[in-house]
Amino acid sequence: MPLDLTMSVMNVRSVGARSAARLAKLGITTVRQLLWHLPTRYEDYSAAVPIAELVPGEKQSIRGEVIAISSRFIWPKRMTITTATLRDQSGAVRAVWFNQPYVGESIPEGTLLSLSGKVVLDKRGLSISNPLYERVTDAEHTAAEGLRHTGRLIPIYAETAGVTSKYLRFLIQPIIEQLDLPDPLPESVRRQYGLQSLSDALVAVHYPHRPEDAVRARERLAFDDLLLLQLKALRDRRQMNLLKSVRVPMDTEYMRTLVQGLPFPLTRDQRVAALEILKDMERPYPMNRLLEGDVGSGKTVVAVLAALHAARQGHQTVILAPTEVLAAQHERTLRTLVGPTMGVRTALLTGATTLVDGREATKPAVKRAVSSGGVQIVVGTHAVIRDDVRFSRLALVVIDEQHRFGIHQRAALMKSDRHASGVVPHLLSMTATPIPRTLALTVLGDLDSSLIKEKPSGRQPVRTKVVSSAERPRVYAFIRDEVRAGRQVFVVCPVIEAVQPDAERIASSPRPPRQGKLSALWAQVKAVQDEYQKLSKEVFPDLRVVMLHGRMKAKEKQAIMHEFKEGWHDILVSTSVIEVGVDVPNATIMLIEGADRFGLAQLHQFRGRVGRGAHASYCFLLPTDDGAARARLAALEKTDDGFALAEADMKLRGPGEFFGIKQSGMPDVTMEALGNAVLIKKARTAARAILRTDPQLKRNPLLAAQLAALQNLVHSE
To answer: Greater confidence, 564 or 507?
Structure first.
């Protein structure tokens, strides 16, 4: 009978209710999850050495006869120590196990052992500490299938309390020995790309004979998931192309007039992106395009041009922003670009603010204007997604910082039954976080993309420096000089309030927690409230310091940002709420406290808040640890290329952390492969070939079932 991968791990021999609960902490509840709990590394015990050739500090394997074994219990330490003496033809050595009393009962004198572990030298001579062991007769008997614990490459797994690597090997080995799984990958694809069968790959990844065997096996397992991602992307694209959308024919003369009327020239990248968007909007099926642009590259202007083009032909556009601060700024930018002679009406709809053409209006009035078509361009936050917000002739949806909106939220705006026209609008997603090429090919494989890499003329380069705590006084003096010259300053902190230890919990604990390095670093993290108090009362009592964080009410945040932009405040102390979109041309300094607690891409976003005016600008990075983070942060000193930093960030933090997909359910082996451009291209080519001959996957039912499971996973997020 074929192995049922969906079977509960409780059905595996030697797994009881207690063990199942412990395995669940590792995300293992089924046999599939057990088999796909891949080794994180391997210990090389492949070659046994004579006892006389053991080297202190090395991890080595020996074979010998147990000539003595004993156990003793040490009361003060509440520890059992088991000591065995093993001998071969070259000499003898001690093996010592701590808190493993069963070892003394299972290895009688005269037993031949294969034993692997770290060699230790102390005052009593050489010993092997906490070694893995097997009887030689057992090892020889299982040599054909592969030893479990010694004498070879030994798999080491992610562990938790009560679940060791040895226990996992004990569970996985019997399953691996009899593994014969149906392979969802067509044989033609396996042959074309030289991939192993699924069963062979699982055997090799858990018990490789050589390191390169494990690499090849992991590539096969990663290919499977990459293929599914590509199949999903290609099918989603085909489904989108079958939908009906609004055709917005390009009015070249009108666009030329719009561009010529802008207060600044467009860059070449902006012109190309605008043309790509307008051409997509001419088609009868929905556009699905991602507009990527580095910090300050001018994405919003491109989106506004598309919105005005739609309005020119009687259609509506909604621009969705993740925060009320950013939505309000987009609305002001829009009104600046939309002159009174254009005849285009605008609205702002957020949880706290509603405007029509820049004037306050009630929410019901704004909603009526939108549903009747009296407003052509609506800017808003999640408030726009409410069911009672309906449109008359919606042709274009623009989502800024699209990764901050969930799948259901994005889909809600695209549903045809929300629009009187009954068609699906065009979708333009924007992001100021450049996405590494490999991630764009997989996670966003169903989108067309436009890139804006050029900076508009007049943008000032931002001089960046990582500074130590000892240099802080010099930084403060520099800030004072800039403020005296009429400039403004951002100070960013990673948290709102300092976290205080729970004194009652600590006092009642039988073992008080140690003040380790991590807790000491956390104690140094600057909270916004603490930093505001320090700067306003101690460091700069004569300057105008104001505080901004996400817990404030929306109107309060908007008022503070408006005041700061108008020059009422000298220093703004904030959380990451100012990460994107905030435009204050007079701000010339960005000071980031706890810089090592942010990724490179996010730090680059903070840095992009300055350098927007005519004055030289600066970014100072103050890590909580003067030494450990300097090498990573130094990348920001060397380049202001957001795309290069995004690639570096993904290598440092991994694609899951970078793109917010860490909890997506993807195995680690697939997450690693998201950085492998060659493998991704192979998977995309294979997906296209499969769908060309079998678009509904009727001839590949196993692939179809896996794809359906992936769709359910995505839609449940």
So the answer is: 564
Retrieve residue 523's tokens: 């104690």
Residues 606-618, mean pLDDT to the nearest whole number: 88
Residue whose token pair is 């060397």: 638
CATH fold, domain 42-153, is OB fold (Dihydrolipoamide Acetyltransferase, E2P) (2.40.50)
Across 89-164, where does the E strand assignment appear?
Answer: 91-98, 112-122, 125-135, 153-156
Cα dist from 83 to 69, 92, 135, 621, whole Å: 6, 13, 17, 53
Provide the edge-to-edge strand list for the sheet that holds 462-466. 462-466, 617-622, 587-593, 488-492, 571-574, 545-548
Residue 264's identity, in one-letter code, is F
Report the SS3 class of residue 547.
strand
User: Does 450 have pLDDT greater than 50?
Assistant: yes
Q: Taken in order 237, 241, 243, 246, is the CA torsion positive or negative? A: positive
Q: Both ends of the chain: CA-CA distance in Å?
A: 34
Kindly state the tokens that stand for 171. 């569970």
Contact indicator for 289, 237 with CB cutoff of 8 Å: no
pTM: 0.70
Q: What is the 3-state secondary structure (H, E, C) of 591-653?
A: EEECHHHCCHHHHHHHHCCCCCCCCCEEEEEECCCCCCCHHHHHHHHHCCCHHHHHHHHHHHH
- Categorise residue 411: left if φ over 0, alpha if ψ from -120 to 50, beta otherwise: alpha
Rounded to an integer, what distance in angstroms lies between the CA atom of residue 261 and that of residue 273? 18
Q: What 3-state DSSP class applies to 642?
A: helix
Q: What is the dihedral of CA 376, 377, 383, 385, to 10 degrees?
A: 70
SS3 letters across 5-16: CCCEHHHCCCCC
User: Rounded to 5, what percent of the chain is helix, strand, coil?
Assistant: 45, 20, 35
Residue 579 predicted with pLDDT over 60: no
Q: Is the dihedral of CA 59, 65, 67, 72 positive or negative?
A: positive
- CB-CB contact of 303 with 320 (8 Å): no
Question: Is 648:600 a contact under the CB 8 Å cutoff?
Answer: yes
**Residue-by-residue DSSP string for 564-579:** HHTTS-SEEEE-GGGS
Q: Mean of the per-residue pLDDT values for the chain?
A: 83
pLDDT for the residue 488: 95
Using one digit for the tens of pLDDT, what is the confidence trace for 582-604?
778 899 999 999 888 888 878 88
Tens digit of pLDDT for each residue in 258-316?
A: 999 888 899 999 999 999 999 999 999 999 888 888 777 888 899 999 999 999 999 99
- 630 contacts: CB under 8 Å, gap ≥ 6: 466, 623
Q: What is the CATH number of domain 252-282+297-431?
A: 3.40.50.300
* Dist CA 299 CA 452 (whole Å): 7
Which of 450, 436, 452 has its CA nearest to residue 297?
452
d(CA 92, CA 52): 8
pLDDT of residue 217: 95
**Residue 401, beta-bridge partner list:** none
User: Which residues lie below 8 Å from residue 34, measured CB to CB, with a gap of 6+?
Assistant: 9, 12, 23, 28, 168, 171, 172, 175
Tell me what pLDDT residue 121 has. 93
CA dihedral for 294, 299, 300, 301, sign (positive or negative): positive
CATH of 462-500+519-639, one of 3.40.50.2000, 2.30.29.30, 3.40.50.300, 3.40.47.10: 3.40.50.300
Nearest Cα residue to 346 out of 319, 384, 309: 319
Tell whether the model's pLDDT for residue 665 goes beyond 80: no
pLDDT tens, 108-136? 999 888 888 899 999 899 999 999 887 77
> Which among 116, 109, 151, 111 has a CA at the least distance from the CA of 135?
111
- Which single residue is written with the structure tokens 């997909």? 661
| Residues 56, 129 contacting (CB under 8 angstroms) | no
How many whole angstroms separate alpha carbon 565 and alpha carbon 166?
61
| Enclosing H/E stretch for 291 | strand 288-293
Q: What angle do CA 131, 38, 215 make, to 5 degrees?
A: 95
Amino acid, res. 457: S
